[in-house]
Write a sequence for this structure.
């Protein structure tokens, strides 16, 4: 496969990776208020995504893949709410370690990376069709 | 330096037999066109291959097993491959018509 065509597939792998990243961010945002259902139990833990480069044997180029989706091990936020079903003996409820602001910034970054890959596809397509147009 | 005619003829004969088959007088009409046919056939089959791949991925996407991004790239690849083949074909046909129009 020629260089320009494989560029299309590399950019596609980048878009796929950013799509997975957005999925993880959406899980975090949706579970921003998910608490445990037992007293003193752990609430939802923030998830983090990492990427890795992968050698595509068929194309002979480096594409990107999701390395791992792991959990953020930082401390939970404690909220004093004795009436809550998940409150411990001191009346504190463990809240998920998610900050809406951080998730929003992560989401914006995923969006920008996705758009960058889209632009790569756009430019590649233009270059390919302009080259073919030389024949006409 | 003395040249023996028999040696010269032997050398000429050796050269002729070692020449590729396409350069032999009898084959020169058929060979180049079959090379061109192979080229066209190869280009067309790669376009068909790309189209099939795009269809497969579209099918997977309909059943929810493939990404939108993958579908778009596969179709873009198939489209550009087909565009290339069609342009080459048009160019070749116009060249052929140019030859047909040539006053003899």
């Amino acid at each position: 496969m020629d260089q320009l065509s494989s560029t299309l597939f590399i950019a596609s792998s980048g878009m796929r990776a950013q799509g997975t990243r957005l999925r993880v961010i959406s899980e975090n945002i949706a579970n921003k208020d998910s608490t445990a259902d037992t007293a003193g139990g752990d609430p939802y833990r923030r998830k983090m995504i990492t990427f890795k480069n992968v050698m595509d044997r068929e194309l002979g180029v480096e594409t990107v893949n999701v390395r791992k989706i792991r959990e953020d091990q930082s401390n939970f936020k404690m909220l004093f709410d004795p009436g809550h079903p998940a409150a411990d003996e001191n009346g504190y409820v463990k809240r998920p370690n998610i900050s809406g602001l951080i998730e929003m910034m992560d989401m914006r970054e995923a969006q920008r990376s996705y758009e960058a890959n889209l632009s790569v596809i756009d430019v590649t397509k233009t270059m390919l069709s302009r080259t073919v147009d030389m024949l006409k | 330096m003395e040249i023996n005619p028999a040696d010269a003829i032997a050398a000429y004969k050796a050269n002729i037999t070692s020449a590729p088959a396409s350069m032999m007088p009898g084959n020169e009409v058929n060979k180049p066109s079959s090379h061109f046919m192979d080229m066209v056939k190869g280009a067309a089959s790669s376009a068909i291959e790309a189209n099939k791949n795009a269809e497969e991925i579209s099918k997977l996407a309909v059943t929810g097993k493939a990404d939108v991004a993958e579908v778009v790239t596969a179709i873009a690849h198939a489209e550009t491959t087909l565009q290339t083949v069609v342009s080459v074909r048009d160019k070749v046909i116009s060249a052929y018509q140019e030859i047909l129009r040539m006053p003899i």
The interface with chain A takes residues 67, 69-70, 72-73, 76-77, 80-81, 83-84, 87-88, 90-91 of chain B (CB under 8 Å).
